[in-house]
Specification:
This protein is mainly α. The protein has helices at 14-23, 34-41, 45-57. Bound molecules: zinc ion. Zinc ion binds at residues 4, 6-7, 9, 32-33, 35-36.
Length: 64
């Protein structure tokens, strides 16, 4: 599976990969764990977790 481009965290979750695709770009070859993604986007991990819930509620298949 994917690993975080910044901190090298291995086996980042499907939700983290999904968030990268949604927020950075569907064709991104780089993936980020939730804490590095929060840093990149200058938001909190809590906000990102809310986002995950939102996308899930929309029925987005990138999330579980
Ligand atoms: Zn990371």
């Amino acid at each position: 599976m994917a690993e975080c481009y910044i901190c090298g965290k291995k086996d980042i979750s499907k939700n983290e990969v999904g968030l990268t695709k949604k927020l950075i770009g569907r064709n991104s070859k780089k993936f980020y764990c939730i804490s590095c993604l929060a840093e990149q986007l200058e938001v909190t991990t809590e906000e990102l977790k809310d986002k995950i819930e939102e996308f899930k509620n929309e029925g987005c298949k990138l999330f579980e």
